[in-house]
Amino acid sequence: EWTDAEVWQYIRARRLPYNPLHDRQFPSIGCAPCTRAIQPGESRRAGRWWWEQPETRECGLHPRVPPAALPA
Fold first, then answer.
1. Is 59 a catalytic residue?
2. Labelling 51: which of 4, 26, 33, 44 has CA 20 to 30 A away?
3. Could you report the per-residue pLDDT of 25-49, keeping only the tens digit for each?
4. Which candidate in 29, 59, 70, 71 is catalytic?
5. Is residue 29 classed exposed, middle or buried when 0-12, 13-18 and 19+ CB atoms within 10 A define those classes?
């Protein structure tokens, strides 16, 4: 597995395009309302689904219950 530093070294060495939000403290980028910049000392995923409780963070795209198990 690659570290974050290795990924960024690869991107920069090959001059690959990337989302400029990464340069503004957005290490994990999703849809506009689900994403915010992180603060010093926060985990890299702290900016995702920031309003949710840590144990239930989910954007709704990947429900925990398979669709077949949901009531009709």
1. yes
2. 4
3. 888 887 777 778 888 888 877 777 6
4. 59
5. middle
